[in-house]
Amino acid sequence: SRTPLWIAAGAVVAVLIAGALYFRPHHAAKLSEKDTILLTDFVNTTGDSVFDGTLKQALATQLEQSPYLNILPESRIREALRFMGRPEDQRITRDVAHEICVREGATAMLTGSIAPLGTHYVVSLAAINAQSGDTIASEQAESESKEQVLKSLDKAATSLRGKLGESLPSIQKFATPLEQATTSSLEALQAYSLGHAAHQHFDDEGAIPHYKRAVELDPNFAVAWAELGVVSANTGQTRQMDECIKKAFELKDRASEHEKLYIAGHYYDEVTDEAPKIVEVYEQWKRTYPHESLPWDNLALTYEGLGQPEKSLENASQSMRIDPKGNYAYQNLSDAYMSLGRFDEAKAVVDQAIAQKISPRTTRFMRFQLAYLHGDEAAEKRIVEEGLGGLDEPLILFQRARGDLARGRIQDARAAFDRAVRFCKEHQNVEFAAEVRSIQATFEAELGFVNEPRQQLSEALSLALNKDTKALAAVPLARLGDIARAQKFHDELAAEFPTNTLLTKVQLAVSQAAIELQRNQPQKAIAALESSLPYDLGSGPNGINYSSIYLRGAAYLKAEDGPKALAEYQKILDHRGIDVLSAFYPLAHLGSARAYALQKDTAHARTAYQDFFAAWKNADPSIPILKQAHAEYAALR
After folding, report:
1. Could you write out the three-class secondary structure of 472-533?
2. Which of these, 15, 44, 333, 471, could form a disulfide with 316 (CB 3.0-4.6 Å)?
3. In terms of C-beta density within 10 A (0-12 exposed, 13-18 middle, 19 or more buried), how is residue 281 classed?
């Protein structure tokens, strides 16, 4: 997983209400669908900390149901605070909110407070024109007890939505009661709010205990299960992710329409991996909530993995138009440009992010790829050092290791892989450690090593014998001659995950092709790879990243079909941006050389060999495939 990350759309802050609602006439014109609202932190004078953060999250959940209201995204609030020289977790008081509204062009701010009244509570909400200070609409409510606050908030927020201009049919359709959409437990909602805040600030590891506490307090808290699944995925805990999102999907009928889309999107994307349903959910989300960038972001990532970079670009571009400060838009847009080979535009997106003072974490991996692409090893080193010491450390080390491997620097690569795995083990992230080792073994096997990748696979499978590890390990197992285990993993995965689009159409096709190649059945390998053809250009965390093309080229070589082998390797060379750090790219030069040699085209073969040697000019000379290439090149003379 990209470690993506999925941020629930809509910023959030404010108040609640309870019991009986008191009518307050509004004092200014209603808002339009184009007007943006900033939610402020509410003032809590009750002395009860359970209301801190909890009630603003409840109000946020209620307002996020509205397709009419356009809430200023959390990402834009964080970026505005950064420009203002304030910390990202700054309380959004009325004065701070006014400054953000002016900076971001927001029309109104929604303020709120909760105060004691004997044993009761009084809650006030007000939507205020950010320029004039006039009140647009307000509500006040009294609650007889703490336990009644959430129900009262529902009534108040619903009434306020109408006063702000939302139609009655829209409110009736998109107003799931808060106790159903979230929880009736203030303590569970408080724990969820803490987890959600940590997730919003990219501290997924820190969010996990809060989400776990929320579902312990209320096992029917659907969206808490969903977000626990998301942060589990982001921290490499795929088994926990699977269990949590399945639980959320079982409970989705308790959620609001907005949260149902969120849960369904993750379920089809992370659990069943059904590409048509993933697209269907996000297209519905786009239609229902046109102001939100999240479905555009997630569709961009989906299309990237499916090998449709043009559609990825289209969705990422629209996401940025909706939320020019959104972290994921910059990631997805630069990735789409890279996949299309439009490197200058990818760099322009990165430069724009830097100019906008977007968090350096957002652009770190793209900056590393661009530095690698241009051979700027000093910049690569700086970017790696920037990523050390935090939760991104294993990810940036993994990227560095892949880059070293693609340059043929096997010892440097192994050292970086080892550091990444060690970090994961120290932080109990053994599933990602297993994936790292499996990927390392895949490439080392292609480089001609035997004992080392076998040891790496042994470690990977001892760390986590799950879907991802089996799928990744099957190919190197087959290439190393362990056909029985490779076929066993292939068959188990096919039986257990029949709906998973990329697994069944691509990954299992590649593993079966590797098995057939080891059996010296190249035509069967080519046939096995037929289903992967539409997805050949898939990239990113969910893409096949050249594997299907590379193995198809190897199969044509074994079948002694030089022209078709050459066409496959050329496909890799023509699409440099699909996976800049892949060792398959320099190896495609070697594959091309061998394809030319099959056709007795010595001149072109010699040039292709020289291209390979140039790419590996600083490679470790002991690499088996490099020794073999030199022997083949000498034989051409």
Report:
1. HHHHHHHHCCCHHHHHHHHHHHHHHCCCCHHHHHHHHHHHHHHHHHHCCCHHHHHHHHHHHH
2. 333
3. buried
Global pTM reads 0.84
How are beta strands 108-117 and 36-39 bridged, if at all?
parallel
Report the Cα 457 to chain-centroid distance in Å: 26
Cβ neighbourhood burial of 170 (10 Å; 0-12, 13-18, 19+): middle
Q: What is the pLDDT of residues 424-482, one digit of tens each?
A: 999 988 999 999 999 999 999 999 999 999 999 999 999 999 999 999 999 999 999 99
**How far apart, in whole angstroms, are the C-alpha atoms of residue 385 and residue 263?**
36
Q: Helix-strand-coil percent breakdown of the chain, rounded to 5?
A: 65, 5, 30
What 3-state class would DSSP assign to 310?
A: helix
Supply the CATH classification number for the domain 192-288: 1.25.40.10
Residue 3 has pLDDT above 50, yes or no: no
pLDDT for residue 22: 29
- The conformational region for residue 399 under phi > 0 = left, psi -120 to 50 = alpha, else beta, is alpha
Query: What are the domain boundaries of the chain?
Result: 20-175, 192-288, 499-636
DSSP for 555-597 reads HHHHTT-HHHHHHHHHHHHT-GGG-TT-THHHHHHHHHHHHHH
SS3 of 135, please? strand
For domain 499-636, say whether CATH 3.40.190.10 is its number. Answer: no
| CATH code 3.40.50.10070 for 20-175 | yes
